[in-house]
Every structure is written in C-alpha cells, then in structure tokens.
Amino acid sequence: xxxxxxxxxxxxxxxxxxxxxxxxxxxxxxxxxxxxxxxxxxxxxxxxxxxxxxxxxxxxxxxxxxxxxxxxxxxxxxxxxxxxxxxxxxxxxxxxxxxxxxxxxxxxxxxxxxxxxxxxxxxxxxxxxxxxxxxxxxxxxxxxxxxxxxxxxxxxxxxxxxxxxxxxxxxxxxxxxxxxxxxxxxxxxxxxxxxxxxxxxxxxxxxxxxxxxxxxxxxxxxxxxxxxxxxxxxxxxx
Length: 238
What we know:
The protein has nine helices and nine strands. By secondary structure, the chain is an alpha/beta fold. It has two domains: 5-23 and 114-237, Rossmann fold (3-Layer(aba) Sandwich); 44-112, no CATH class. The strands form three sheets. A five-stranded parallel sheet has the order 6-5-2-7-8, sandwiched between helices. The chain has a two-stranded antiparallel sheet with strand order 1-9. It has a two-stranded antiparallel ribbon with strand order 3-4. The radius of gyration is 18 Å and the shape is globular. The model is unreliable at 1-5 (pLDDT under 50).
C-alpha cells in the first residue's frame, strides 16, 4: 500500500489523532505494581477501565469539585490544567500513590508511547502523493509531532492543529475553521475522519463531510482508515 494513491473528489482530509491515527496502548509492564488504597494490585478489568478514562474523547470520567471540573473542561487548552485534570482522574479511579499516577500520566503525554494504526503511515503517504492536503486536528495538550516523525510520516502532514496551540477545542467550530484556513481549502471539499461523533462529527457544522472510525486496539483495526476513506470515494490506485 505504501506506493498507493487515492483518486477522490476531495481536496483535503482532516484527521483526529487519538483513536484515529494513533492509540494509547499500555506496554505489558506499565501497570505492574499499580495498586489501590488497600495495596492490592488492580486486576485486568480495573486496569482497562483506567486506560479508557485516560483516552475517552468526550465525557466527564469521574466526579469532581468546581476546581477539578474547570481543569477537566479546559484540559486541552493548557498543559498545566491537563496534568491537574488527569491526575485527579487517576486518583478518583483508585490510583492514590502519587508516584504511580505521575509515572502513568508521563506516559500519556509521551508521543513515543502512542501506537500508530497499521495503515496510518501508508494512508498519509498515499494522500500526500496524490496532492491531497492533510491536517491533524486534535484536542490535546502536548506536542504530537514527534509521534509522526518516529514513523516517517511528519512530512505527509501539512498542518498540525492542536487545541492547546490554537486556543479552541472540538466540537467548537472555530478549530475546524482554523484548520480549513490553514490548508486554504473549501469545507465542502474536505473530509474529517475521527472516532467521536460528538467531537469530530462537529466538522459538519462548517460544511465538511465526516467519516467515523472505531477506536479499536491497533491489532484489531488493520485497515480502518482505508475503509473509511473508501466509503467517501477515495479509490486506491496502485
């Protein structure tokens, strides 16, 4: 597929990051020794729920006071609030040892700890070769560019539109308009691809089409991007 191209009526594609192009998947030893207040290690179900709370694109994961809620609602606009919010989520999820919570959070914001989907690099490469503009549009509070550089795909992305850098978050139409202006593309000829109907699907409010992908584990979604693009007329050319 690396040599493939796409023939399509679209001029640009906007991609979400988490659950779309990359996924935060724990290494086998990340949760080793992780324990609750009673000192008992978390079981596999508890660990899976913690990971879900760390990566869910929308929704409030735990009950919070006013200060915590403010941090949560603005987490993707400010790295300090992001840290405050997620450490609170971890604490409310039972990870009360500060060192454990801090270590796990450090992995969340480390681009090297994010796993690309199997078709991410090849899809971005194919779009680039076809002359289709690409932006990565993410609600996030840390720089994800190194994750793309690590798989040799950073040069295939024309614009990184990151909420903490541009001061707007999905589903606010402002962030989509920012991306379109940066790419100098017409919304009617732009497709948004993401894993959240609520956040990413809001691209429709500015006139874009929207393709939904499921944030399955990377081992279970080999060609999700190719399939989503094909549904909107992106025909692979070899």
